[in-house]
Design goal:
The chain is α+β, with helices and mostly antiparallel strands. The chain contains 25 helices and 19 strands. The strands form six sheets. It has a four-stranded antiparallel sheet with strand order 16-3-18-17. The chain has a four-stranded antiparallel sheet with strand order 12-5-14-13, with helices on both faces.
Length: 622
């Protein structure tokens, strides 16, 4: 594939070439030879550009690599049919045609890499270095052999890449972005807006929405039937042994509950605490002088902190008890309201202590906590009981027992569920392990015990696949009503917004219709909390002083453009923006120019493709 150009010099491009080949070798080594074997079958090429053939193995290798890359992005292995739908095969083919056209041209004009340059490039590749950290001939030979590449083939590839980079550097070098283009984009991108926004809600309507009639609801139901259709689902019978079900039957004696309370006593009996800050001084005299300034009102505690070149986080002790404060405990806990005490000697030096809040002592008695503690102990005992039954359940299922029989034998819950990954689930079907098993379940699968996140054990059986079907109107009525109301409310709010816009245009103040949010000096890429991007986009399409009603992405309201702030043309920020635009434009121009050059070379040399050979490669990859 022809490389994307950046406007770099040929020397820089050469360095880039080394990196590309080094990465290619590392990728091949990581694959361990998988997917890079010779295509074989008597097919040598899939076509030619001019005098150069497009090697069938190059196409097969490039297609596999692109397919693997796209599969990683999607998080699933794509089939060749899916790859063709995304145009991956055509993308790979175009890249190879462009690359071959460049090879054909470098050969025609006599551009090539010498042996010394070739050797230097190969010896720099980490993939071919031995244990001593330098190029190792045996490592080089083994790496190529492992990936079905001969030295001649590999080295020819590097020679071609170097030659192409030289040609590419000659084509893309010297491009500049027109000043008028840069200035225009900078003025557009750097421009800012100040605007006011009034958001409307149902309470802002002058008249309430009427109740919908059955005919109106039925019309919505019929028009949006897909929204009221249950998706295809798997009808699943499952058995489950769940700790939450067994827990109430578990016996826990009072002594165990009391022991659990005592073990967590610090959580149930919490002493009175204070929110405290400690400001330490080098000497007692300095601490006394600081306290005197505080008492005289010539300095605040925060100013004293700044004088010590500290921040409030540096002196914050958090919520502390008497035991945490040592010698300062009595002084701090004698304060009945926020204030400062000291100086007090501490291990760090004399210090002033500021008490900011009192946290009252809290106590949960045993009688208050015992029911919760008992339930927790019962649940833990139930989890152990479930785990102890795992072997019995495994044996029952392995013997071929039906789920109904296993439920009776092991005391398990037996139920049915229509499961679809497209539908939100609750209860046991919301468990990730249950969902994973349900999605993988196929007709004829034997039930197997699985462990759920809460310690439950379950087993599933697919009874049938339930086709997608509309929910009967009577059952879907509440959902239909919600859809009707949203649509009706959006229309009513937009109509109200348009009425307000007319009033504002007539001289009324926008703030007279509700709470207005004002945003100042925002650029086009600004994001406003709680508002869709359409608000900023709308503001940048308006004239100063204009007001516009807007309904988009869950927002209905008005935008009033208060001011237009032109982009700065001087200063560091303006220069940085112009430089960034110039670099991006120069790169884009160079890329486009090189793409046109490559296409022209291919067209001039002549392109011949063997569709049968291409189809054969594609079929083998499937």
């Amino acid at each position: 594939m022809a490389k994307q150009t950046t406007g770099d010099t040929p020397k820089k491009r050469k360095a880039g070439t080394t990196l590309v080949w080094a990465l290619l070798v590392l990728i091949m080594l990581g694959l361990g030879g998988f997917g890079v074997t010779n295509f074989g079958g008597g097919i040598a090429s899939i076509g030619r550009v001019g005098d150069r053939e497009i090697d069938v193995n190059d196409y097969s290798r490039a297609l596999r690599q692109q397919l693997d890359q796209m599969s990683r992005q999607f998080g699933m292995q794509l089939t060749m049919e899916q790859a063709r739908a995304f145009g991956i095969d055509q993308q790979v083919l175009r890249g190879l045609v462009s690359k071959t056209a460049l090879d054909n041209e470098t050969a025609r004009v006599g551009i090539s890499a010498g042996d010394a340059t070739l050797a230097a490039e190969i010896q720099k590749m980490d993939a071919f270095k031995g244990t001593a950290g330098s190029f190792d001939r045996e490592t080089y030979r083994f790496a190529l052999e492992r990936n079905n590449l001969t030295e001649t083939k590999f080295e020819a590839g590097i020679r071609g890449d170097i030659a192409r980079s030289i040609l590419q550097g000659a084509i893309v070098g010297g491009f500049t972005a027109p000043k008028v283009y840069v200035d225009t984009l900078a003025a557009w991108q750097g421009e800012a807006r100040s605007f006011s926004v009034l958001s409307l809600a149902e309470a802002d309507l002058t008249t309430p929405l009427p109740a919908p009639t059955d005919a109106e609801l039925k019309s919505v139901y019929d028009a949006q039937i897909d929204a009221f259709t249950n998706p295809e689902a798997k009808r699943i019978t499952y058995v489950a042994l769940r700790p939450e079900t067994l827990a109430p039957t578990m016996t826990v004696d009072d002594a165990a509950v009391k022991a659990a309370y005592d073990a967590k006593l610090s959580e149930y009996v919490m002493p009175e605490k204070r929110l405290v800050e400690r400001l330490v001084y080098p000497t007692e005299d300095e601490a006394k002088a600081a306290k005197a300034k505080l008492d005289a009102g010539t300095a605040t505690f925060d100013q004293l902190v700044e004088e010590r070149k500290l921040s409030l986080t540096d002196i914050d002790l958090g919520d502390v008890s008497r035991d945490d404060l040592g010698a300062a405990a009595d002084a701090v806990f004698s304060l009945t309201e926020p204030g400062v005490t000291g100086p007090i000697a501490t291990d760090f030096g004399p210090a002033l202590f500021r008490m900011n809040a009192i946290i009252a002592a809290q106590e949960t008695t045993f009688d208050q906590a015992k029911d919760k503690l008992k339930a927790d102990l019962q649940l833990e005992a139930a989890k152990k009981a479930v785990a102890d039954k795992r072997e019995q359940i495994d044996d029952l299922l392995a013997s071929g027992a039906e789920l109904e029989d296993a439920a009776k034998e092991a005391g398990m819950e037996l139920a049915k569920i229509d499961y679809s990954a497209a539908t939100p689930q609750d209860g046991i079907a919301a468990d990730p392990a249950f969902q994973q098993a349900a999605q993988a379940l196929q007709e004829g699968d034997f039930p197997e015990a699985i462990e759920l996140d809460d310690g439950s054990i379950a087993a599933l059986r697919l009874d049938e696949v339930v086709p997608a079907a509309p929910i009967p109107f009577d059952q879907a009525k509440d959902k239909v009503a919600a859809v009707w109301k949203k649509d009706a409310l959006d229309k009513a709010l937009l109509a109200r917004a348009e009425d307000i816009a007319k009033a504002v245009e007539g001289g009324a103040a926008l703030g007279g219709f509700g709470i207005v949010t004002v945003s100042r000096n925002l650029t086009r890429d600004a994001r406003l909390d709680g508002l869709p991007p359409d608000v900023v986009k709308t503001a940048f399409g308006m004239q100063k002083g204009a007001v516009k009603a807007l309904g988009a992405n869950g927002f209905t309201g008005l935008v009033l453009l208060d001011d237009v702030i032109p982009a700065a043309t001087t200063g560091d920020d303006a220069a940085t923006l112009q430089d960034s635009i110039a670099v991006s434009a120069r790169r884009d121009i160079a890329q486009d120019a090189f793409a046109l050059f490559s296409d022209a070379l291919a067209a001039e040399a002549g392109i011949q493709l063997d569709q049968a050979a291409i189809n054969a490669v594609n079929a083998r990859i499937q």
